[in-house]
Amino acid sequence: MSLSPKRDTTTNNNEQTGPTSHAAPQNHDEKRRSHILDTTCALIQRYGYHRTTMDDIARCAGMSKKTLYLVFPSKESLVEQLLLDHLFSPLHITPNPSICSDLDSQLLGFITQLSQQMMNEKFLGLIRTVIGETTRSPLIAQLMSKLFHLSGQNFSINQWLLIQKQAGRLAFDDIDEAADHLFGLTIGVPFLTCLAHCAPPPSHNDVQFQRTLQRGIQIFLNEYRVITPPSSHH
Fold first, then answer.
1. Percent of the chain beyond pLDDT 70?
2. Given 3.40.50.2300, 1.10.1240.10, 3.65.10.10, 1.10.357.10, which CATH number is that of 87-224?
């Protein structure tokens, strides 16, 4: 499907609110929903938020605008869901709090999966677009601020750290500070390097990248790991 929609010269007054007679159905088709989000993502990256209309999205997604509004009642709600799904969706990883498990290996596996989620071209492209759009569109800036606020402890790193703290394996006072520290020690620099187009995303078997993660994890755990004193025998 072409992403070069013909553009109407007239202004669509229903752009933000959509037809008021339609409400988003409770159980819409997930495949169709995903297709709409992917189409919107591609259009916004190419044309920007304001130049992308619901007419464009419907046309490029191969559906009527009426069908589009049945799934998403407004462009704002569509873009909010796009950002939520693509940028704020946490990894579904449940750390094993067993004291017998290897915390170093668990953390390496988690950070590796997080890097794969964040350092792919689809994610990076949307991040680059959002950075540009926040300076031009107050609405995008408001949406990002809202989603950051609502996500809170649902960020993947925060979730992982909280579970390990509750298991008595890590100790910290400020979870956001600990999460920032872990991110900065591991994938922070590689992520920013990819974001700035200075290097391609690392592959799964990139030895140098794995060494970077291992060094960062070791430094992090040296500071935050709870050391259980050996039991004394009488």
1. 78
2. 1.10.357.10
